[in-house]
Design brief:
Blueprint (H helix, E strand, L loop, with lengths): L1 H51 L4 H14 L2 H37 L6 H8 L2 H4 L1 H11 L3 H24 L3 H30 L17 H32 L2 H17 L1 H19 L3 H26 L3 H9 L7 H16 L3 H7 L3 H57 L1
């Protein structure tokens, strides 16, 4: 697990570095105002995609890993077929919906009608992007983290190269949108081809011909998992996209850009947490399906103490360096976002300690409990943020964001200890 997580984390840090470099180039060449406008372009399509997308990666990983561990290969193929079809249909619907409603978001909500066509252009990449979810679940279930590491870097490289080319040639926000859409689309297509090759090599190449009836025994369970997972990942997107839109509406595009940059810095720092969680998820799913639950609890404690805690402390030690790093990379114009980035890093440090938390809830079938807690958290973020933004701006939004995140993490850790005792 350590070697796989290290490899995946290394690729994600490289991808994050490339993404950060892209952000630096875009922020400097576009300036705070235009960069904020670009953030608004991505926010509305991202919000609609979050509402419609089924986010099948968690479902696929859990069942593909479990079916592979128990030798249920017909069921495994059927899960792949269902996941790919659902993702493709829903993402296409999301693209069409953005194209039909972007005029309203641009002209009425943002009062920037020129952003409408850019939103529609960005949304055109959704069908190819949707191939990521199921493909990631397949590759991770087979432990192909080397392949996944390559694809983690692929999209950021394409985006960076295209951003530099387009912005230096004066394409402005349009160039930023085209570069991002192209990178994400090509990344989705590439990982899909890799997953198809793997399944073919394993003798499962005809997975698209599998019968839906193979999942009849698991129909209710899988349907419930899809539903709760959909709600959970939708809420995860809302807590980012809605504050950006509110800041753009009630404050300014500049503050919306500050918030997005602060989130980007925090997301980049959480790459190790993300990598460890993704490696842990198929492992937890397979062991849970095989009935190894008592030993799994011991592993979680060991992972927390020997893995999560040292990394969390390391992240805290980086926080004092942020003012220097941000001013060096983004320039003095972005000085107001420094306190926000530092606060968000505290939340990242705490969530890194318990990197296995979400994976454990999903693998153990307690996704409903996790989603209900996250629903309450999201309501508090959006409702409280709408009030706080109008009085304290984006920094007040960040304080609320981090405070509620910490409360959520510790609450879920306590509940996980309680329900796990009753399940063993």
């Amino acid at each position: 697990m350590s070697s796989d997580a290290g490899l995946l984390a290394l690729s994600q840090y490289l991808a994050t570095g490339l993404g950060l470099l892209k952000t630096i180039v875009a922020a400097r060449l576009l300036g705070p105002n235009d960069y904020g406008l670009a953030a608004l372009v991505f926010a509305y399509p991202g919000l609609l995609y979050a509402f419609l997308s089924l986010k099948t990666v968690s479902v696929t990983t859990r069942y593909v890993a479990g079916f592979r561990a128990t030798g249920q290969f017909e069921e495994l193929k059927a899960v792949c077929k269902v996941s790919y079809l659902l993702d493709l249909m829903v993402s296409t619907a999301a693209s069409l919906l953005v194209g039909a409603t972007c005029w309203w978001a641009a002209a009425i909500f943002y009062q920037r009608p020129e952003l409408g066509r850019l939103m529609a252009l960005y949304a055109a990449c959704f069908p190819l992007v949707s191939l990521n979810s199921t493909s990631w679940g397949v590759l991770s279930s087979w432990g192909k983290f080397g392949w996944l590491s390559c694809f983690a870097v692929m999209s950021p490289v394409i985006e960076l190269v295209l951003v530099i080319i387009f912005l230096l040639n004066g394409l402005g926000i349009l160039g930023m949108v085209i570069a991002t859409a192209a990178g994400q689309a090509l990344g989705g297509l590439g990982i899909f081809l890799a997953a198809a090759l793997l399944l073919s090599r394993e003798g499962l190449g005809s997975w698209w011909q599998s019968k839906f009836k193979e999942l009849s025994f698991f129909r209710n369970e899988i349907s419930a998992f899809f539903g709760w997972n959909y709600l959970f990942v939708t809420l995860s997107s809302l807590v980012i996209q809605v504050p950006i839109m509110l800041l753009g509406r009630y404050e300014s595009p500049k503050e919306a850009g500050y918030f997005r940059l602060a989130v980007s810095v925090a997301t980049g720092t959480s790459s190790m947490e993300s990598a460890m969680g993704r490696v842990a998820y198929p492992t937890i799913s397979a062991r849970w399906a095989s009935g190894e639950r008592q030993t799994l609890r011991k592993s979680l404690r060991r992972w927390t103490i020997k893995g999560g805690l040292p990394l969390g402390i390391l992240i805290l030690l980086v926080i004092p360096l942020l003012p220097f790093l941000i001013l060096l990379t983004f320039g003095p114009a972005y000085n107001p976002m420094i306190p926000a980035a530092q606060l968000m890093m505290i939340g990242v440090a705490i969530s890194t300690i318990f990197f296995w938390l979400n994976s454990y809830y999903f693998a153990s079938g307690q996704f409903a409990l996790l989603t209900k807690a996250y629903f309450l958290y999201t309501c508090l973020i959006i409702g409280g943020g709408w009030i706080i933004i109008q009085s304290w701006g984006f920094l007040g939004m960040v304080i609320l964001f981090v405070f509620l995140k910490i409360i959520l993490i510790f609450s879920m850790v306590v509940m996980s200890a309680n329900f796990s005792k009753s399940l063993i």
